[in-house]
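Prompt: Have a read of the protein record below and flag anything odd:
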Amino acid sequence: MERDDAILLLQEHVAKEGLITHCRATAAVMRATAGALGEDADLWGK
């Protein structure tokens, strides 16, 4: 799934903006962690 599609899906199913922000921040942390571990960031979070 492409990142833009994932964001649209998230916005469809999550009403609270704060929770959407939390989900997006979590994805960013997962991508950074993947990079630090030498893993594929796209598999860890879009």
Notes: The chain has a mean pLDDT of 92. Residues 3-44 form one domain. Residues 7 and 17 are 12 Å apart (CA to CA).
